[in-house]
Amino acid sequence: MARAVFLDRDGTLIENVPYLSDPSAVRLSASGGEALRRLRSLGFLLVVVTNQSGIARGFFDETALPEIHGRVAELLSLEGVSVDAFYHCPHGPSEEGFPGCQCRKPAPGMGIRASEELGIDLRRSWMIGDAPCDYEFAVNCGCRFVLVRTGRGKETEREISAFPAVREDEKSGTMFFVAEDLRAAAGIIEQAESGFSAERGGFSLIDPS
Ligand SMILES: [Mg+2]
Ligand SMILES: [Zn+2]
Prior knowledge:
Blueprint: E1 4-7, H1 32-41, E2 45-51, H2 53-56, H3 65-78, E3 85-89, H4 109-118, E4 126-129, H5 132-141, E5 144-148, H6 153-160, H7 164-172, E6 176-179, H8 182-199
Parallel strand pairs: 1-2, 1-4, 2-3, 4-5, 5-6
The structure holds magnesium ion and zinc ion.
Residues 8, 10-12, 129-131, 151 line the site of magnesium ion.
C-alpha cells in the first residue's frame, strides 16, 4: 500500500487568502516546491485536503475550485513537482448550523476516501497543516502530524499545546511535531522515516513549547 503526505491547502501549501476564489491570487508557500520534491523523493503520494466552507456560505461557486487547484498545480509544475489529488469539503461547520458531513476536517472523510481511491495506508502516512482541525484530522485518520508555523500555525501551536487530547497523545506516544515551514516539515518527516526503519517505531514527541 502507498504512503501519503496529506497537505492542508490554505496557510500550509499556499498562502492564506480567506475564501480564496481568484486563481491569480494563488501564491505557493515559500519553500513549498522544494518541500514537496523532497517528500516525493521519499516515495510519498501527495494529497491536498482542504475545507472550503466558502462554497456552503455562498461566497464562491464550487466550479471555481478546479481553476484554483489548476493554478496551484501549474505553480507546482514550475517547481518540478505535482500533487496526486485534491480533495475538498464544500460544506459549512455544523456548529454554525450547516448540515453535518463526513468530510469537513476534523472528520476523517477525505482521508478515508483518499485511502480507498489511491490505496493509501493511513497508519504509515502523515498530515501537515496549520490549524487545530488538521491535527484532529490526523488523529482521526491515524496519521502522524506536523504543525507548520505558517498561516495560523503559531496561534494553533498555542491552542493545541493546551488540548487535553494532545496531552493524552503525549502519553501514548502519538507523534506530533512542529516545524517552522513546509521545508522544515519535510525534513522532520525524512528524519522520522529514517528513524522508523532503524528503530521500528521508537519515536519521541517534539514538544511544541
Ligand atoms: Mg490551513
Ligand atoms: Zn463536507
